[in-house]
Backbone:
C-alpha cells in the first residue's frame, strides 16, 4: 500500500512538473531505454563471438588444410577471428593462383620467399581486423556518452527544480513545505533519473570494453600465427 502511494505520488509530481524538467526526464528515460536495449544486444553478440571464436580456433588447429577450414568458416559468422581468416585466406589463394600453385595445405617448407605476397596478406588481415574491431566496439561510444552526460543532465534538472522552489518562496513570501516541496521533488526526481541512466551505462561500458579487448588480443595473436604459417609453408 505504501509502495503504491509512493508510486502514485511520484507520478503526480512528474505530471505536474514544468516543461524543462519534463524534457530532462524524457531525455534521461530515452537514454536509459536505449542503453538497456544495447546491453541486451551486446551481451548476445559477445557470447556468440566468444563461443564461435573458440570453436573456430579449435577447428583451425585441428584441420591441416586451409581450404577445408575456409569452407567450414562460413558457420562462424559471429567470430571476428574467422572473418579475419577468410580475408587472409582469400589473399593467400589469390597469390598462390597467380604463381600457378593452388596447394593450401601444410605440406612442407616454402621453397622461396615472396616478401610482397606476405605483405599483401598482412594488409588484408589487418584491414579485416580493423573492420571486426569496429564491429566489436559498436555502440560503445553511445554508452560512454550516456555514462558521462546523464549525471549532468540530471543535475541540470536538479538545479532547475531548486530554482523553482526558490521562486515559489519569493512569490509567496513563505518557506512552508507546500511551497518548496514541488520544486524539491522535481530536483530529486531529476537527480535519481540521471543516476539511473548513468550507472548501467558505466558498468556496461567497462564490461564490454574488457570483453572487446580479449577478442582483439585473440585477433592480434591469430594474425601473427597465420602470417607465420603463410611464410613457412606457402610464401
Residues:
Amino acid at each position: 500500500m505504501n509502495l503504491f502511494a509512493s508510486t502514485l505520488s511520484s507520478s503526480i509530481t512528474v505530471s505536474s512538473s514544468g516543461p524543462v524538467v519534463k524534457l530532462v526526464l524524457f531525455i534521461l528515460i530515452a537514454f536509459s531505454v536505449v542503453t538497456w536495449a544495447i546491453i541486451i544486444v551486446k551481451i548476445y553478440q559477445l557470447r556468440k563471438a566468444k563461443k564461435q571464436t573458440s570453436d573456430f580456433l579449435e577447428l583451425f588447429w585441428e584441420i591441416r588444410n586451409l581450404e577445408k577450414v575456409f569452407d567450414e568458416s562460413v558457420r562462424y559468422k559471429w567470430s571476428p577471428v574467422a572473418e579475419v581468416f577468410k580475408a587472409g585466406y582469400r589473399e593467400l589463394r589469390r597469390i598462390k593462383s597467380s604463381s600457378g600453385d593452388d596447394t593450401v595445405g601444410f605440406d612442407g617448407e616454402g621453397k622461396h620467399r615472396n616478401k610482397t605476397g606476405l605483405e599483401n596478406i598482412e594488409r588484408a588481415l589487418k584491414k579485416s581486423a580493423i573492420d571486426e574491431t569496429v564491429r566489436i566496439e559498436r555502440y560503445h561510444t553511445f554508452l560512454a556518452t550516456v555514462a558521462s552526460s546523464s549525471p549532468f543532465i540530471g543535475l541540470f534538472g536538479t538545479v532547475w527544480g531548486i530554482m523553482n522552489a526558490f521562486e515559489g518562496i519569493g512569490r509567496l513570501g513563505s518557506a512552508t513545505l507546500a511551497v518548496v516541496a514541488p520544486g524539491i521533488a522535481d530536483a530529486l526526481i531529476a537527480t535519481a533519473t540521471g543516476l539511473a541512466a548513468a550507472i548501467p551505462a558505466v558498468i556496461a561500458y567497462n564490461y564490454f570494453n574488457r570483453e572487446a579487448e580479449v577478442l582483439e588480443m585473440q585477433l592480434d595473436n591469430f594474425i601473427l600465427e597465420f602470417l607465420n604459417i603463410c611464410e613457412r609453408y606457402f610464401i
User: Anything to note?
Assistant: Residues 1-13, 106-112 have pLDDT under 50 and may be disordered. Residues 74 and 140 are 27 Å apart (CA to CA). The chain has one domain: 18-100+110-234. Helices lie at 2-15, 19-62, 66-72, 80-98, 115-136, 140-172, 177-234.
